[in-house]
Amino acid sequence: MTDDFTRSQTFDIPAGYQELPWHRGFGRQVGPLFEKRDATGLTRAFRVEEHHTNGMMNAHGGMLMTFADMAWGGAVERNEDTWWVTIRLMCDFLSGAPLGSFVEGNGTVVGVADDIITVEGRIWSGDKTLMRGTGIFKLISRREGQQKPFTRAVQDA
């Protein structure tokens, strides 16, 4: 990622949201990503920027699916040490999100069988539903020495 790329990103977000400190790997490429935790649960979000768009300057379907995976998977998180992988993600695209839109999403657990969790989710912008679907996630153990996904990398001075 270049400095020009990160410099052009928008951090204008609604109250209650904070940036996810995901500064390495794939999350860094598709960010910035945001979340808020309140009495209603966990909601994740992003603002549609130029690097998220398709040729029509709407959020690319691949970005919306990537975001759905992160937003709906968040429903299985018990705490910051909960690790999970996606088994299946089924998405119904209902509407587009133009450049500049603030996109939000969350999920609700609807089934649990051992370490397999089924989530129903929704992605929206304002009062418009963009996507609905179902995710199936598997809880996994963190490997020894593995960083948390949203931990800032420590750099040597």
Characteristics of this structure?
157 residues, alpha+beta, Thiol Ester Dehydrase, Chain A, 7-stranded antiparallel β-sheet, disordered N terminus, disordered C terminus, HotDog_dom_sf, Thioestr_dom, Thioesterase family protein, thiolester hydrolase activity
Topology:
Blueprint: H1 3-7, E1 18-19, H2 25-30, E2 34-38, E3 41-47, H3 61-73, E4 83-93, E5 102-113, E6 116-125, E7 128-140
Pfam family, one: 4HBT
Organism: Hyphomonas johnsonii MHS-2
InterPro entries: HotDog_dom_sf, Thioestr_dom
What does this structure look like?
There is one protein chain. This protein is α+β, with helices and mostly antiparallel strands and 157 residues long. It has a single domain, classed as Hotdog Thioesterase (Thiol Ester Dehydrase, Chain A, Roll), CATH 3.10.129.10. 15% of the residues lie in helices and 38% in strands. It contains three helices and seven strands. The protein has helices at residues 3-7, 25-30, 61-73, and strands spanning 18-19, 34-38, 41-47, 83-93, 102-113, 116-125, 128-140. Strands 1-2-3-5-6-7-4 form a seven-stranded antiparallel beta sheet, covered by helices on one side. A hairpin with a 2-residue loop joins strand 6 and strand 7. The longest helix is centred in the middle third of the chain and has 13 residues, at 61-73. The chain is globular, with a radius of gyration of 16 Å. The two termini are 21 Å apart. Mean pLDDT is 85; it is low at 1-5 and 150-157.
